[in-house]
Amino acid sequence: MKFAVVGGTGLIGSQVVKKLNAAGHEAVPHSQSTGVDVITGQGLVEATAGADVVVNLTNSPTFDDASPAFFQTSMDNLLAAAQKSGVGHFVILSIVGADRMTDLDYYRAKVLQEDVLKAGPVPYSIVRATQFMEFVNAILSWTTEGDTVRLPTTPIQPIAAQDVSDAVVEVAAGSPLNGSFNVGGPDVFALDELGRITLNARPDGRTVVTDDTAGMLAVVEGDALTTKGEARLAPTHYTDWLS
To answer: Which of 13, 62, 121, 147 gives the lowest tally of CB atoms within 10 Å of its CB?
Structure first.
């Protein structure tokens, strides 16, 4: 099959392209660097022409209240191009628990992206993943002050990007789900515990202090960001990934 992977040069997109091509498909990466702009619509019809499947892995450049507009505009433009090109399957990557996180602009924006896809003209699949292991250092940096990292006890279920890309490839190469597929890491950690594990394995002079008011994820209620057992569990453990 032929795949148009929009956002195909990023962390997940580049792996998806590589794995689809290795499996014998034709996967073409598209991004601003290749002349495709999901906001202006530039290059979208050309990018989707002849594609059996569109995989949209683009992401908002901000996590604030500008993110809903990004997802609304980008999805409207991509769906219009996909419909014009006769695409038979449209896949996006979303977040486990986004619909339970109405206090955060970015999570509301991801729910909006899902809703636009569901209401659109193209058969679809939604892959929902838990937080990426590759983003843990960024999460720690949000609440670092000097040598102290303040983290809440929010439950987190980290997943490796390679496992996320495997799930996207599997779903994209299959028939449209017209629904969602959830995938999460094999282990759940309290975020402060995860920070300590990370800094013990990769010490940089910082220490973790538990603070249930610290950072964006402090507003998470209970285990809202975990799969709660309703998902496939990926094989890569965080401690193995760290090593």
So the answer is: 147
